[in-house]
């Protein structure tokens, strides 16, 4: 049984949430970072006020933790150490960038958030979704996204894209295919748990179509707030 609930407060550690918090998730090879940057840049050019950020990282200390997590030389990193580092980076990012923007009425679009840890460390690393959720529950204090755009792609297609399109692979990119298959399965479990929060976009399509579909979804969410 997953311990997460859909309940979340508009108050987080003294901050008042006054804008939408939207995350973009997807397995490696989904084009998530490129799509996020392209879509948000287009919306900003159209006059939308928003803050694009990323995880792990997004702020000074969080980026330092990111460099440790993704360093391809850190192959001996324990799975639970990895999960704790992600949660630590997330907490710092939340306090430094996400919550201040939301409190000031600026919508935040984050390339990854807590769902990534549940899929990658909870299922991919076989720690379990509930233990990883408990670590992150302490870190985020109930601050869940209002909506999550999920770029849906199977592990095999995603891995082919990584191998073809990236000159340098980070520590997670270099994992075996079985790891990425578990990550994909983990996301499917999370999607079923939060059907009202997740909006799927078919990431197997060409990049231009994925960008356009994501743009339509994100613009609609911003216009409806």
What does this entry look like structurally?
- By secondary structure, this protein is of the alpha/beta class.
- The chain has a single domain (21-224), classed as Rossmann fold (3-Layer(aba) Sandwich).
- The protein is built from eight helices and seven strands.
- The strands form two sheets. Strands 4-5-3-6-7 form a five-stranded parallel sheet, sandwiched between helices. A two-stranded antiparallel ribbon has the order 1-2.
- Helix 3 packs antiparallel against helix 4 (114-124) and helix 4 packs across helix 7.
- It is globular.
- The mean pLDDT is 91.
Topology:
Blueprint: E1 11-12, E2 15-16, E3 21-25, H1 32-45, E4 51-54, H2 60-70, H3 79-103, E5 108-111, H4 114-124, H5 129-140, E6 147-152, H6 155-165, H7 177-193, E7 198-202, H8 207-224
Parallel strand pairs: 3-5, 3-6, 4-5, 6-7
Antiparallel strand pairs: 1-2
Helix pairs in contact: 1-8, 2-3, 3-4, 3-5, 4-5, 4-7
Q: What is the CATH superfamily? A: P-loop containing nucleotide triphosphate hydrolases
Strand order of the largest sheet: 4-5-3-6-7
The assigned CATH architecture is 3-Layer(aba) Sandwich
**How many domains is the backbone divided into?**
1
- What is the overall pLDDT average? 91
Sheet with most strands: 5 strands, parallel
Global geometry: globular
Rg, Å, rounded: 16 Å
Output the structural class. alpha/beta
Helix content: 40-55%
CATH fold call = Rossmann fold
Q: What percentage of the residues does DSSP assign to strands (E)?
A: 5-15%
Extended strand count:
7
Count of helical regions: 8
User: What's the SSE pattern?
Assistant: EEEHEHHEHHEHHEH
Distance between the termini: 32 Å
- CATH C-level name: Alpha Beta
> Uncertain runs with pLDDT below 50, 5 residues or more?
none
Function: Phosphorylation of dTMP to form dTDP in both de novo and salvage pathways of dTTP synthesis.
Binding site for ATP: 26-33
Family: Belongs to the thymidylate kinase family.
Pfam families: Thymidylate_kin
